[in-house]
Design brief:
By secondary structure, the protein is mainly α. It contains 12 helices and no strands.
Amino acid sequence: MVWQALKVQECLILYRLKKLKEEFQLSLSFLSILPFGKLKDPIPTISNACWAFPICGVIIGSIIFISFCLALFLKIPLFISVILALTIGIFITGGIHEDGLADTCDGIFGGNSIKTKLSIMKDSNVGTYGVLSLLIIFSLRVFILSEFEVSISHFLSFISIAAMSRLSMVFILFYLPPAKTKGLGFHAQILNYKSLALACVISLLLLSFNNIIGLYIILSMSFILLVIMYVSWKNIKGQTGDICGASQQITETGGWFIFICLS
């Protein structure tokens, strides 16, 4: 009887580990173009897999920071190294966050009703507000990243901020209702509070490496997130995939700025 009970327990553990692996695969394929094998049916839901968003942020952030350090090691000028690293980041995410930021700014600033704003956000063409938002955010990211040092402490801060910025997407998908009955924001709506809690724990553990600065980073990024959620609710009464992409870009850039100011 004891042997059978242990065997059942082992099977349950292996099954759960398999599910966790599949959820991580889904999250990584959702947030990047990095290859991580093919998923088989039944495919997990984003609601269950969102706990892995911060870990995906760590992976993406690590690639960006290591690319930056490698470029400097090869004696490439500072600003060119920064631009190369950010370009690699855009490539491995497929530019989905930047696209979301541009569409969000076009819709919110260019429309005069909820229907019009959502229609503009859905349009694949980038308008004036979208172009300006990309120019501003990319310029800020270039100048802020150029202030980072090649050190373990700065690396840990960089990846923890990357994790927190992906956590902001989880909060938006959890707390704001979908603004449309189709699209990414609708299908990726998060209802599993356990996955949200686990994502928070992972992000907070990473930020704990920053000591007291980590607290200021949490507070600043949380404030930025609340502003984004308020603006989203005020303008379209919910969230879309574009809003999530915008939140990732803005909260991450804000986190970088606070870290550089305080370090």
